[in-house]
Amino acid sequence: MAYDISKCINVSISEDQMQAYIYISSQPDEEGNVIADSITPESLRDFLTSHGIKAGIDKELIQQIVINKLYDRRHLIAEGKPAVNGTDGSFKLLFKTEIDNKPKVLEDGSVDYHNIDLYEPVHKGMKIAEYTPSTPGHFGYNITGAVLNCNNGRELSPLKGTGFTISDDKKSYYASLDGKIEFKNDTITVTNVLDISGDIDLTTGDVVFNGDVIVHGNVYMGAVIKSKNNITIMGNVEGAMLYAGGDVQLKSGMQGGGKGYVEARGDISGKFFEQTKIRCDGNLNVNSMMNCDVFCCGDITISGRHGIIVGGTTMTQGNINATVIGNMAEVKTVVAAGVNEKLVKEINELENEIKTIKEAHAKHERILDMLKTIKNPSEQNKINKMLDQVIQSMQELDHKLSGLNSELEAKLFQTQNYSKSKITVQKYLYPNVHVTLNGLHYLTKDTFTNVYLTESAGQIAVINDIHNK
Questions:
Q1: How far apart are CA 448 and CA 460, in angstroms?
Q2: pTM, 2 dp
Q3: Fewer beta carbons within 10 Å, N or C terminal of the chain?
């Protein structure tokens, strides 16, 4: 006897047609027969199809319902698959885009005014950004079998900017130089110039940068600037400390107050320096210099109408060319040009080190000769190992000796050049100027005009005609 199973099944479909539920009643009919017991998996699937449920049907659940007579409860019998939109491509920036330039409070309650972040540093080859490509979307369907559309993710255009390179797969961005990095208006800028519009003082912290530093304001007492390349300061400088891997250029000057310090691997220039310690591997060009402690590897030029050196100690391995040296008050002024004690000391140290290495090399040679005379077969492996160690040590000594000889040769060449140094005074050379020239000493007791000082017959000669020097 065939039964109408629809009399015991109730179907409900969600409003979005993504779920379908069934409820199968175990209630018997008028004759006491349980209609639900006549349901088969095939008849139940046909029933669902007749109600528009064509996709996402749980066939395993149908089997369990029929076999185990899971009546009188609500079952999620079919479920659609939602469409999944793809994700857009995205960038991850691997550096700070906002700088916290506030002083940091230390554990002891004090405030650290030195280590304040003025910029975000970057190094050549550093990975600065990553790109994650977009993903495709996936179509879905509802329980009626209707297809649900999706959107694919959108790719983003490469990042704009300068100072970086992009990998071949367009996923990685790398800095192409040392310096600072910033992100503004969707643009990355990597530059080796740190441009500071205002002043530098203790409250702004130390400035430490791998490229050029340009300060448009003043630099006040206690400030520190360290640059891998050049330092340029437009305003005045007080007792600050400046360290440059390249040149230092002061558009105004420096009143060091006895605490100012300037060090440069290149040239140094400025309108004036007062009470400042200066160390310069290149040339020094100033309009006036008062009570300074100076050592320069190149030439020192004190030019201009008031191009004066007065007070302090000014030493160079090159030449000195000044408008005026000393003053009418006969303030003690020390100037030195040519071979200096520092270079002589370095040469002596190199010669002693070379001597020590040569002695060590000779000792190794004696050991080597001795080992070669041993003819004991049972000890041959041990002897061979010792021979290898001695030969390796000799090779290391030879390599070090070669480097030291080259360094010594360069310094001796410097000595030859510096032994020809001169001191030229365009206007006045006043009394009480202590002169050292190529190792010779001279104290001025008179006022000279338009002279140059040179070595002649083992002493310092003051020549009046500077144009025929």
A1: 14
A2: 0.61
A3: N
